[in-house]
Amino acid sequence: METTEIRSFEQQLEEPYELPAESVAFFREYGYVKLKNVLSDSLLAYYGDIITEWVFKLNQLTKPMEERTTYERAFLQVMNLWRENEEVKDFVFSKRLAKIAADLMEVKGVRLYHDQALYKESSGGITPWHADQFYWPLSSPKTVTVWIPLQKTLMEMGPLAFAEKSHNVEIGRNLEISDESEAIMASQLTQFNLNETPFDLGEVSFHSGWLFHRAGANLSGSARKVMTMIYMDQDQLITHPQNSYQQADWETWLASKEIGSHPDSYLNPLLFSY
Prior knowledge:
This protein is α+β, with helices and mostly antiparallel strands. The protein has one domain (about 5-265): Sandwich (Jelly Rolls), CATH 2.60.120.620. It has helices spanning about 5-15, 20-30, 40-60, 70-75, 85-90, 95-105, 180-190, 245-255; strands at about 30-35, 75-80, 110-120, 125-130, 145-150, 160-165, 195, 205-210, 215, 225-235, 270-274. The strands form 2 sheets. Strands 1, 2, 3, 5, 8, 10 and 11 form a 7-stranded antiparallel beta sheet that branches. It has a 4-stranded antiparallel beta sheet with strand order 4-9-6-7. It is globular, with a radius of gyration of 18 Å. The two termini are about 35 Å apart.
């Protein structure tokens, strides 16, 4: 790869994306938005190769698929890759993506909660219905995850599906991702419209921390490779953990900072601010 091309990728990660005005209103109402042509094919190929290398280098889930739990069958999951590789850090710290997150949440700036590679293997199962913020000891709903497929993601690969407007109700907020959450929320969410559509290469989604979402099994024969970053309002506050998962997150991703303080440790850098 030529140095000039790598620099052009770095520049693209910094350049503002022209966010359509209607996208902010859509996100506010529906709890998610899908945006096309956010990142170029060549940029995704370059960083995708690096991310994939590190996912398989750091992955510790090696059990046969038939011995795994529903959660483990859903994907290989590797977090905070930005601390392992400088080029992955450039991708995760993208001001282009962080600015979109800030604008969609209508806040002055965003910090990183953590990044997370989610690789659904060719025989990977469903990702059950869940809301991410069940796991986060954060006081405000001003959180958002960007979901970045590293390849074109057709329906047979299990693209992300959203229960529109479900971030506005409190049903199911005590459920971890599991067979139980899938069964309970499948019946509870019938009142909400389901958006389940493929992703073009370069298309990404942003979804609110309390929006319920799921993904189908990967029946394609190829891995569904996805990189995500979780952003939080720069004025977010740490709240007392409500479950064992939030306790672990507080210790692991928030450096056990004081309850009631801002999550502004070295693990949660400010990625964009006006």
